[in-house]
Design a protein that fits this description.
The structure is a single chain. The chain has helices at 3-13, 18-42, 44-51, 55-77, 83-106, 112-138. It has 141 residues and is mainly alpha-helical. α2 crosses α3 (44-51) and α2 runs antiparallel to α6 (112-138). It is elongated, with a radius of gyration of 16 Å.
């Protein structure tokens, strides 16, 4: 990665150290993912009605996301996160973003709020994958 292309990432992460940058992006992912998971698990009924998504599906996703977010948080807490699990997080985030769009188009019939939420979530998770990938490359793992 060139110095110029790394500038937006360093501004976003507020550090020039690639490992710290990666850890911060992982930590932010962990907080958002765990928060989403807890909300889905605890309020699957009301959220399901609001989003137009099956409450059972939200409950299952909530449990999964809470555990996944905790795992990402564990990686973020490591001084030097191991490359293979970080690549797994990046790939999982990319897959989640793509599958969210596919589910929205081919499988789910959410409310308008649900369609907006799923789309925003796909963009956010895809963004996590992109900045984590860039930070991993900058760290030259």
């Amino acid at each position: 990665m060139s110095t110029y292309s790394a500038r937006p990432l360093t501004a976003l992460a507020r550090t020039n150290d690639p490992k710290t940058m990666l850890r911060r992006f992982l930590a932010l992912d962990a907080v958002v993912t765990t928060g989403n998971g807890l909300a889905y698990a605890v309020a699957s009924g009301p959220l399901g009605r609001f989003l137009g998504v099956d409450a059972g599906l939200l409950l299952g996703l909530g449990v999964f996301l809470t555990l996944y977010g905790a795992g990402v948080g564990y990686l973020a807490a490591r001084k030097s996160p191991p490359t293979l699990p970080v690549r797994g997080v990046i790939e999982a985030n990319a897959a989640w973003a793509v599958l969210s769009v596919v589910a929205l188009v081919a499988w789910l019939s959410p409310s308008t709020a649900g369609a907006v939420w799923i789309s925003l979530q796909a963009v956010a998770v895809g963004g996590f994958a992109a900045v984590q990938y860039a930070a991993l490359r900058a760290a030259r793992y």
